[in-house]
Design a protein that fits this description.
144 residues, Immunoglobulin-like, 4-stranded mixed sheet, 10 strands, 10% helix, globular
C-alpha cells in the first residue's frame, strides 16, 4: 500500500527514496585519477598490478591498474573517491616448469606471485586519496 505525504501521491515517496539512495553513491565526477611509481629493490617493477581497496571509513569503488616499467596511471573514470585505501601490489612470472591445468586438461606454464605477501594478500600499504591536487604515490618494495 502506498502512503501519501501531504497531498502528493505515493509515487512521490518512491521518487524521494530513490533520490536518497543515489545521494550516497557518489558519481563518476567525484572520482580521482591515481598515478605513481613502484620499485622493487631500487629498480622499477617491470610488470605488475596495483589495486586500491577502500577502507571501512571510505566509500566508493575499488580501483586498479597495470604497472609497466615501474609506472601506473589510473584515469579519473576508473579512479577512486577521496579517502583511505589499502594498496595491494602483485607481480607474477613464469617459473620455467609446466604444471597440469585441470580445467584445460593439459600442461601449462607455471606462474607464481614473486612479491612478498606483505605487499598483496597481507598488505599494510595505504594511500590517502585527496580531493584537490594530483594523487601521486610512490611505493618502494623490498624482496627481503
Amino acid at each position: 500500500m502506498m502512503r501519501k505525504i501531504g497531498n502528493w501521491p505515493g509515487v512521490w515517496n518512491v521518487g524521494g527514496i530513490c533520490l536518497l539512495l543515489l545521494a550516497g553513491c557518489g558519481s563518476s565526477g567525484d572520482r580521482r585519477a591515481l598515478e605513481g611509481t613502484v620499485t622493487l629493490d631500487g629498480v622499477p617493477l617491470a610488470e605488475g598490478y596495483i589495486t586500491f581497496l577502500p577502507q571501512p571509513d571510505t566509500g566508493g569503488p575499488t580501483a586498479g591498474g597495470k604497472i609497466t616499467q615501474g609506472h601506473f596511471s589510473i584515469s579519473t573514470k576508473g579512479g577512486t573517491f577521496v579517502g583511505t585505501f589499502r594498496v595491494e601490489i602483485s607481480a607474477t612470472r613464469k617459473t620455467g616448469r609446466k604444471v597440469m591445468d585441470a580445467m584445460l586438461g593439459r600442461k601449462v606454464d607455471e606462474i607464481v606471485q614473486y612479491l612478498p605477501t606483505r605487499y598483496n594478500q597481507q598488505s599494510k600499504l595505504t594511500a590517502q586519496v585527496q580531493g584537490d591536487g594530483p594523487n601521486r604515490f610512490e611505493f618502494t618494495l623490498s624482496s627481503e
